[in-house]
Amino acid sequence: MTSMDILEEAKAxxxxxxxxxxxxxxxxxxxxxxxxxxTLTNQMGRLMGIQPGDWVADLASTRGNSAxxxxxxxxxxxxxxxxxxxxxxxxxxxxxxxxxxxxxxxxQGDAETPPLRAGRFDSAFCECAMSLFQNKARAVAETVNLxxxxxxxxxxxxxxxxNCLPPEIDGTLGQLLCLTDTLTVQGYVELMEASGLKMLHxxxxxxxxxxxxxxxxxxxxxxxxxxxxxxxxxxxxxxLERGPELLATLRGLIQEGRLGYWIFVAEKPTT
Length: 271
Prior knowledge:
Blueprint: H1 3-20, H2 23-29, H3 37-48, E1 55-59, H4 65-74, E2 77-82, H5 85-97, E3 104-108, E4 121-127, H6 136-146, E5 147-160, H7 172-176, H8 185-193, E6 198-204, H9 207-230, H10 237-255, E7 259-267
Parallel strand pairs: 1-2, 1-4, 2-3, 4-5
Antiparallel strand pairs: 5-7, 6-7
Helix pairs in contact: 3-4, 9-10
């Protein structure tokens, strides 16, 4: 990789971090930036077999809500890695407010190459962030390196069949909904197995996509009503105007089985 490539990659990651820390992201996605919110986080934790006292890495931890929840529910130690400085600080504050600062930690860093000790973790998870990584294969390989033998990696992400998304999704809304540069179900299985992981669970939770779209439609409707009452313009008015039409398209793709949301859990071999 040349110095120019490194610079461009750093710019892309900074851009993504800024977007997910923005008021637009908070308005659209709320505090938990993935379908199913903490219910699916805990479901994935159970599939991963997280035990009290375990050390768990939360990769691309955003504002730390999942890290705090996993630490509380499973009574384990969680270390979140988040690229965005503002989000990393919010993660620290969330742990303090939950009185879990002794078990829920956060470091600012690149989740694609996490600054954590190799072989230290019983498990690791990554929620709705994989498509934002510039090099997915490297990200998974680095995650495997963090795990102890027998450690487990949980990944939840949107799955998309080739050439089914409308071109408008390539913009800001597509990034916020984690729809850019995503893979098929088989694509994620192959990605994890290519790093030497053994697949344990593949769970279709696409119904959560329908529910999050309904919530987004309600938020957009409320925001549009607020705009009319106040005469104020929100962020990216063109996207907000076209939002209901695009969300209806996505709903149809989920119902057709071409767009989904899955949980994948795999294990690092013991030998």
